[in-house]
Amino acid sequence: MLNIILPKLPELETERLILREQRISDAPVLYDLRTNEQVMRYIDRPTPKNVEESQQVIQSINDNFNKGANLIWAITLKSNPELMIGNLGFWRTDLPNHRAEIGYMLQPDYWRKGILSEALSKVIDFGFNDVKLHSICANINPANEASRSLLLKHGFVKEAYFREDYYFEGKFLDSEIYGLLKA
C-alpha cells in the first residue's frame, strides 16, 4: 500500500506561482471562494455560514494531510505569495490503489489566464513522481465545460458517467469521472 508520509506539505513553484500550505489566515479568501456563486456553480458542496467554518475546513485539510489522506495547496502568485487566489490538490486518496482525486477552485479574476493549467501540471508531476501515484482522477459536474477542457488538455480521459449518483440540496445530480495514468 502507498503511504504519503511527508514532514510538511512541500512548497511547489512554477513560472508564475507558488503553491503553499493553506493557513488559517487564508480563511477569509476560502470563505469568499466558497460563497462565490460563479466559483461554486459546478462545485456541489455546502456553502459556509461564516469565516470560522472556513477556518475549520483549513484545519481539517491540514489534519488530513498529517494523516496522509490529502495534499491540498493554496495557489498564490509569486508577486504576492501571502494572498491565496485559489486552491488545488488531492482531496481524496485511495492509497491501497495508488490513486488520488484532484480538485481545484480559483477566484474568477484569474480565470482564463492559464493559472490552473500551470498549477495542475506541477501538482500532477508531484503526484506521479514524488508521491508515486499510479493514477489521478477528477469528478466533475457534467455541465462544467471549463473543467472538462482543462482535464482533457492535461491528458485525462473520461472514465465514467454516473447518472444521478450524488444527492445535493434536494436533487440527484450526475457525475463525470476523468482519469490519468502515470504511464
TrEMBL record:
This is Ribosomal-protein-alanine N-acetyltransferase. It comes from the Bacteria. Residues 17-174 form the N-acetyltransferase domain. Keywords: Transferase. PROSITE patterns: GNAT. Coiled coil: none annotated. Pfam families: Acetyltransf_3. It comes from Pedobacter nyackensis. One of its GO terms (molecular function) is acyltransferase activity, transferring groups other than amino-acyl groups.
